[in-house]
Each structure stands twice: as C-alpha cells, then as structure tokens.
Amino acid sequence: MDNELLDFMTLCQQRAEDALAGRLPPSHILPQRLHEAMRYSALGGGKRMRPMLTYAAGRVLGVPFERLDGPACAVECIHVYSLIHDDLPAMDNDDLRRGKPTCHRAYDEATAILAGDALQALAFQILADDPGLTELPAEQRVQMIRILARASGSQGMAGGQAIDLDAVGKRLTVPELENMHIHKTGALIRASVQLASLACVPAADTVVTDALDRYAKCMGLAFQVQDDILDEESDTATLGKTSGKDRDHDKPTYPALLGMEGAKRKAHELHEEALTSLKLFGAEADVLRALSRYIIERKH
After folding, report:
1. pLDDT class for 246, splitting at 50, 70, 90?
2. Which of 3, 40, 152, 215 is the one with CA 20 to 30 A from 95?
3. Do 140 and 150 meet the contact criterion of CB atoms below 8 Å apart?
4. Omega before 252 within 30 of 0, i.e. cis
C-alpha cells in the first residue's frame, strides 16, 4: 500500500470514528444498555470502507469533508446494523466480529436486534438534520434519503441477504451469484459514492456521477469476490471474524463456482473495469484508483 493511500485511509478512519462518536447517543442516557450496545458495535473497529468511499468520491468532486461527515456516518450506521443482524443466530450465528464478540454475545439477542434497529433509524435521522448538510437544497437531501433507503431495503441489502439465505445448499450460476451480491454488498457501496455526489453544491454533472457510479458498482462486486477468497484462504485472527463460515454453511461463493484462480481473475477484471470508469478524471481520483487495488489485495 502506498503512503498516500495509507495516510488517506488513516485520516478517513479517524474522521469517521470521531463523527460517529459525536452522532451516536451517549451511553449514559436512557436506555443505557441499548446505547452502550450501539456504541460497542459502531465504534473502535472496522475498515470504514464505505465512509472512506464517501470521502474519496467527495474529494474528487471538491466537496468539503465537513459536509461529508453526515453521509459517511449514515452509510456506516446502516452497515453496522446489517452486521449486527447478520451475526444473529437466526442468520449466520457468529460469535466474532471486528476482532471482538458479536453484539448478541456481548449483550443479548434482544438488545442486539434493537441496537441494529436503532442504528438503521439513526442513519436517516442524520441525513434529515445533520448540521453539515444545511447548505444542500432540500431536494438533494430527500434524494440522499431515498438512495440510502433503496440501498438498504428489499431492492438492496436486505433483499440480497434474503437471496443469500435462500441460496444455502444450492448451486447458483455466476450471473445469479453476481445479482445476489449487487444487492447484498454492492448496493450500499454504490450508495456511499452516490451520497458524495449528492453533497455537491451545485449538483454534480450526470456524466461525472455516472462514471463514479460505474466505479462503485465494480468496486462492490470486487469487494465481495475478495471476501469470498479470504473466507477460504485467511484465518480467523487475521479476518477478525470466523473464517470458512461460507463453506461450512454451504453458501454459494465465487471460489466455489469459478475455482480459486478463476475468482482471483474475476477480482482483477473488476478492478480494471473500475479503473476504466475513472478515465474521465485526473490525479484527483488517484485515491479511488488505489482503493480499488487495495480492495482486491487486502488480507482482511
């Protein structure tokens, strides 16, 4: 990883951490246990890839970071809520997330469900009244809410999870697997970039936003392909979550369908497509280019 990307990632991770800490309800106010669980799950861990993409796309478009803090927090709240629910016994029944006990293990199942619900609601509250977004026209803020809602719901992440649960024990075709991950993983990654586009004043040109959206679509799929690869090749300590669980649960994955080498080729092809979508931009998009390579070379 080059120094510029490392510095940018460190900056974004700390900025997202601080912004989340300031927007999450304090743990000392009622209901204390619920607020503790929300902060336990959202703070102190994770790659912050989705906020990072919001900040990186915003930098390409010249959006001040102060205006991006709210959207970055909103998309991370949705992501964390999905992880809490994904780890529950009714879903993947996992004990480890981001290197520490999952929310339902650290607290209890009922509290974990409520923490996920509350984080989901908080995401939309942030987009509705975050002080950093006051300069935006109301139409753009409504569009932000619409995009995040669609990316989170039955036509996005939740729908993808439903397809994933239904696919256990089945052999999907590559297009079917891709469709599942376009919804489950890709929708929220695309929303991360789209929220940055909507934070522009005046609104960004459609040619520019379309190019960034194509980049994000490729990134979303590449992220999932690499996750599937790491689930097979890495270990629990490195991943910070249980390795081999997709195989153990008999889930369809890219290595299972394409073989390990085929899955790695697929990840590189998606990376090249992501780079092609950025040809419109100059050096201001170098961090996005580096992030795309990082996605397919990461080890956790």
Report:
1. low
2. 152
3. no
4. no
Sign (positive or negative) of CA dihedral 190, 195, 197, 198: positive
Spatial contact of 199 and 71, defined as CB atoms under 8 Å apart: yes
Whether residue 270 contacts residue 218, with contact meaning beta carbons closer than 8 Å, is answered with yes
**Rounded Cα–Cα distance for residues 86 and 285 (Å):** 33
247 or 8, which is more confident: 8
Q: Let me know: does 223 contact 184? Beta carbons within 8 Å.
A: no
Q: How many whole angstroms separate alpha carbon 98 and alpha carbon 121?
A: 22
Domain coverage including residue 206: 3-297
CATH code for position 21: 1.10.600.10
Phi, psi of 91 (to 5 degrees): -110, -100
How many separate domains does the chain show? 1
How do the residues of the chain divide into helix, strand and coil, expressed in percent and rounded to 5?
A: 75, 0, 25
Q: Which long-range contacts (CB under 8 A, 24 or more apart) does 37-40 make?
A: 37/103, 37/106, 37/107, 37/111, 37/112, 37/114, 37/115, 38/115, 38/118, 38/119, 38/122, 40/103, 40/106, 40/107
Question: CA torsion 70→273→283→195, rounded to 10°?
Answer: -10
CA–CA dist 46, 28 (Å, integer): 24
pTM above 0.90, yes or no: yes
